[in-house]
TrEMBL record:
PROSITE patterns to which the protein is assigned, alphabetical: PROKAR_LIPOPROTEIN
GO cellular component: cell outer membrane; efflux pump complex
Entry keyword Transmembrane: yes
Stretches assigned to coiled coil: 198-267
SUPFAM superfamilies the UniProt entry points to: Outer membrane efflux proteins (OEP) (SSF56954)
Protein name, as recorded: TolC family protein
Location relative to the cell: Cell outer membrane
Keywords: Cell outer membrane, Coiled coil, Membrane, Transmembrane, Transmembrane beta strand, Transport
GO molecular function: efflux transmembrane transporter activity; porin activity
UniProt family annotation: Belongs to the outer membrane factor (OMF) (TC 1.B.17) family.
Cited Pfam families: OEP
Major location (coarse): membrane
Length: 633
């Protein structure tokens, strides 16, 4: 018998063996090894992200205006959409926190079973004699169910302050959304006007590049044929390459702005679009009430409002810590049911109240008070430092705006001078290589000046936007009826105008109207095409943000050619007049220059361009002033 028992023990593993095996299985199940994402998963994620980034976008079917660009950025910009989602998330967390203030209603039901009876007996305390036989009051198997409605005053207080903090977190998320929106407005304004400047000049830059390439080819051919000395030919080529590099640098600098604008609008890669060609408007005078701007900035900047909400979050955190010191009062009640047949009542209702308190928590009162005071001082110091930074930004942005206006005026004057210089150079150019080089050099210089003027204008727009951003005014509507691009653009136009009126006496959004110009060219030498010369003048007029028209209300710009007697050289003059359609003269001026002995049509056209550029500032002023007078009741 003993031997049989020994054999059985050798076949079955002992308890320690089973326990070790169970522990090994448990540990193996709990261990986790790092697993890298597969290339297929990465490719699927990239494909999904690309589809989501450009989902449901309205196609670009027309030139994009400034308000259209803002509308697309407002609707499709991913950073702004992220902030909108964060605001929605904060509101959802607020709703979750608010439910914590409700009383708790807990329903509980179950089934209980055991393999023997529960129960017991009792013995006498003094004689230790068993007084009762073993008995039970519970069936081995029974069902039970209960529902308890409870309310804890301490939990309610803590939940109340947590909900207040969650509400302030919603406000913080909203202020961060406002900040992102204001930054988008500034970035779009900056990129839009730089991209528009590049769009205006890109065709001329391509034409000039073609001319320079032709001139380079001619110079290399002349060098190889021995027409030009090698040193002179290389110097000529170097001058052409310098001109090409200068133009390309300015063109690339401004062309990047178009990609930036596309990114702000979240356009799909490769989307081709053009911008509405609006003239450079007259900016508001740099008369800014700095004290007023500082006050508005301190009231409206999202960062300072965020600090206000953070301070309230800190105050509620302190109140929450103090509330945790109070006794916990718990009220509860509810119906009960138990299927145990040994019970006298299988269903009943009970209510109760309990109070508890952690007395050791009272020792934390001094630490809570010290922490609260330190938090208040920290919040105040951070808010004051931020206020000082905001005031500095307002003052710096206002100064930059004033300087940008000056830079723009200097760039405009430089551009007009370089355009006249280029026209004069082309008017006196001949077929000689040196003359062609000088014409190309002045043309490239004039084009670079126009790039610089566009850059200066974009910088002025950026400075204008920086002033608005530093003040913290909301330039876009909070809610818009309809979400299509035209509706958004219309609402943005109105909102921008109202917002800018708060800061500037006259807003940049209001373009000063100007009367159109009718060009007339008279007394040309025989054989010169009048339309060609008039077209050259009209290009100069359009290039300087004036419109040409044959309407009855247009100012009349007349250029009359006159050849002047001279012994040694050939001189001529244009008599330039500006008059009302009825004939009332507004301006009369002569422009004298030297011409080749047999001036070509292109030379006369360039001569007319130079004469027009000499009065272009007065022409812009007359067109603007007469339009203002005509617009008054």
């Amino acid at each position: 018998m003993t031997k049989t028992l020994n054999v059985k023990k050798s076949k079955l593993p002992g308890a320690p063996t089973w326990a070790a095996a169970a522990i090994a299985v448990l540990l193996a199940g709990c261990s986790v090894n790092p697993v890298q994402v597969t290339p297929e998963e990465v490719a699927q994620r990239v494909q999904s992200d690309q589809a989501q980034m450009y989902k449901d976008q309205a196609p670009v079917s027309a030139p994009i205006g400034y308000s259209d660009a803002l509308a697309r950025a407002l609707k499709y910009n991913l950073d702004y959409r992220l902030k909108l989602m964060e605001s929605a998330l904060a509101r959802g967390l607020l709703d979750v926190s608010a439910t914590d203030m409700l009383p708790k209603l807990v329903a509980d039901a179950g089934y209980n079973d055991r393999n023997n009876d529960s129960g017991g007996t009792s013995i006498g305390i003094e004689d230790r004699v068993v007084s009762l036989r073993p008995s039970t009051s519970e069936q081995r198997s029974h069902y039970y169910g209960r529902a308890t409605l409870s309310w804890n005053a301490l939990d309610f207080g803590l939940a109340y302050f947590r909900t207040k903090q969650a509400a302030d977190e919603v406000n913080i998320a909203e202020e961060r959304r406002r900040k992102i929106l204001q930054n988008i407005v500034q970035d779009v304004r900056n990129a839009y006007w730089r991209a528009l400047g590049a769009q205006r000049l890109l065709a001329e830059a391509d034409q000039l590049a073609k001319r320079i390439e032709d001139a380079l080819a001619k110079s290399r051919e002349a060098e190889r044929a021995g027409v030009l000395p090698p040193a002179q030919g290389l110097a000529y080529q170097r001058a052409l390459l310098d001109a090409m590099s200068l133009v390309n640098a300015k063109r690339q600098e401004m062309q990047f702005a178009k990609r930036e604008l596309a990114a702000l609008m979240s356009l799909p890669p490769g989307t081709q679009f053009t911008l509405v060609d609006s003239p450079m408007g007259q900016h508001a005078p740099a008369t800014l009430d700095i004290d007023k701007l500082e006050r508005i900035a301190l009231e409206n900047r999202p960062e300072l409002r965020e600090e206000d909400y953070k301070a309230r979050v800190g105050v509620n955190e302190t109140r929450k810590q103090i509330a945790a010191l109070f006794p916990s009062l718990n009220l509860y009640g509810g119906p009960r049911y138990n299927s145990n047949d040994l019970l006298y009542n299988n269903s009943w209702t009970d209510v109760g109240v309990s109070v508890s308190m952690d007395l050791f928590r009272l020792a934390a009162i001094p630490a809570i008070n010290r922490t609260n005071e330190a938090r208040l001082r920290n919040d105040e110091a951070r808010r004051l430092a931020l206020s000082m930074a905001v005031i500095t930004q307002v003052r710096v942005s206002a100064e930059r705006y004033k300087l940008a206006l000056v830079d723009q005026e200097l760039a405009a004057e430089s551009s007009r001078v370089d355009q006249r210089l280029a026209s004069v150079s082309r008017a006196g150019s001949s077929n000689r290589l040196e003359s062609e080089l000088e014409a190309l050099r002045t043309d490239s210089r004039a084009l670079v000046s126009r790039f610089q003027l566009s850059t200066a204008y974009a910088a002025t727009q950026a400075s204008y936007a920086r002033v608005l951003n530093s003040v913290g005014i909301d330039l876009l509507p909070d809610t818009v009826t309809g979400t299509d691009i035209p509706t958004l653009a219309s609402a943005i136009d109105k909102s921008l105008l109202e917002g800018e009126k708060v800061v500037f006496v006259r807003t940049a959004a209001v373009q000063t109207p100007s009367r159109p110009i009718t060009v007339r060219v008279q007394n040309l030498p025989a054989g010169v095409n009048e339309a060609a010369v008039r077209g050259a003048v009209e290009r100069i007029v359009s290039r300087n943000d004036l419109q040409t028209s044959q309407g009855g209300d247009a100012l009349v710009l007349t250029l009359a050619f006159e050849r002047m007697e001279s012994r040694a050289t050939t001189r001529a003059q244009w008599r330039v007049t500006v008059a009302e359609p009825g004939g009332r003269g507004l301006l009369s001026q002569s422009y004298v220059s030297f011409l080749p002995n047999a001036p070509s049509e292109s030379a006369l056209g360039a001569f007319a361009e130079a004469a027009t550029l000499s009065v272009i500032s007065d022409l812009r002023r007359l067109a603007s002033n007469s339009a203002s007078v005509a617009g008054k009741p």
